Amino acid sequence: MNFMYDQLGNGKSLHLFNVIDHYKREVLELEIEVVFSLPSEQLIHTLELL
């Protein structure tokens, strides 16, 4: 799992969450979650999909 953060030009924070299998070198989630807010419920839901 990897959490990444960035900031837009207007100062708004951007959060990215990826799940990658480094052994097989593939992304386990069908898409990378890119959101302005990442509440725990959304994170749990994404992990349950795996």
Overview of this protein structure:
- This protein is an alpha+beta fold.
- The model has no long low-confidence stretch (mean pLDDT 77).
- It has one helix spanning 40-49, and strands at 2-7, 13-18, 20-21, 26-27, 33-35.
- Helix content is 20%, strand content 38%.
- A hairpin with a 5-residue loop joins strand 1 (2-7) and strand 2 (13-18).
- It has one domain.
- A three-stranded antiparallel beta sheet has the order 1-2-5, with no helix packed on it. A two-stranded antiparallel sheet has the order 3-4.
- It has one helix and five strands, in the order E-E-E-E-E-H.
Give the low-confidence spans.
none
Number of strands: 5
Largest sheet: 3 strands, antiparallel
Could you give the distance between the termini? 12 Å
Class by helix and strand content?
alpha+beta
- Rg over CA atoms, rounded to whole Å, is 12 Å
Figure out the total of helices. 1
What fraction of the residues are assigned to beta strands by DSSP?
35-45%
Protein name: Transposase
Keywords: Plasmid
Topology:
Blueprint: E1 2-7, E2 13-18, E3 20-21, E4 26-27, E5 33-35, H1 40-49
Antiparallel strand pairs: 1-2, 2-5, 3-4
